[in-house]
């Protein structure tokens, strides 16, 4: 797949914020070539998808505006039938797993960052894609369940998909498996595996561009054996195994766009900094409230005050 050139990515990328503006001409050209996106295609498919949702009645979206529906069309390269199936899957997933969606306060998920189990760098890859980094060896299953990691993951995905360029380019996942034990492997049941695949493939409108596996061991082989039946050939081809060879990783992601831990030049970013920063943006908080997330009265009051000012 053609890549964006490094010089087309913003240099000033250390700020913890979401890019909610219109994508650059380069990103839109990528969308045209890779997704078949044009103004005419958007106009016709948005209306067709909206009509299909009403006519089939397989789900009841909490919103039906263009900005929301375009996520699903971009995820499925403007195939209306496939986009419809994804939006049905999206709401079915929420209904089937209320424990990771309902009554969740993003501000109370800081422990995921405190334990350095999961992080999202403020910067992107050289091709403009967001990265999610998991360090599962830092997670103590006796301390909190795998559901907590799912909660944090879904929050990040819901925030990330607000970026139009993320809808177009997709994202990259790094799984650093240093330190994993059989205690971790025992948590990976077929149900957990199916939930992971649903979020990466069928039930969330964020394309997984690539998955990079670092420091895998025989314990990983046990875990991967649970996942493999759920992976089709296309998804398997997106997975790259690097072990401890950072040069191998650098063939995909430039060191100038990686944390120092992985032979890069960049600093880390605690998970909670994302939540703290984005909780100050009225549009983002409104979106999260519509999705059913809990927003404290203190945060809401501050936002209301800033709007009045």
UniProtKB/TrEMBL annotation:
<dbReference type="InterPro" id="IPR036273">
    <property type="entry name" value="CRAL/TRIO_N_dom_sf"/>
</dbReference>
<dbReference type="Pfam" id="PF03765">
    <property type="entry name" value="CRAL_TRIO_N"/>
</dbReference>
<dbReference type="InterPro" id="IPR011074">
    <property type="entry name" value="CRAL/TRIO_N_dom"/>
</dbReference>
<dbReference type="InterPro" id="IPR001251">
    <property type="entry name" value="CRAL-TRIO_dom"/>
</dbReference>
<dbReference type="Pfam" id="PF00650">
    <property type="entry name" value="CRAL_TRIO"/>
</dbReference>
<dbReference type="InterPro" id="IPR036865">
    <property type="entry name" value="CRAL-TRIO_dom_sf"/>
</dbReference>
<feature type="domain" description="CRAL-TRIO">
    <location>
        <begin position="128"/>
        <end position="270"/>
    </location>
</feature>
<protein>
    <recommendedName>
        <fullName>CRAL-TRIO domain-containing protein</fullName>
    </recommendedName>
</protein>
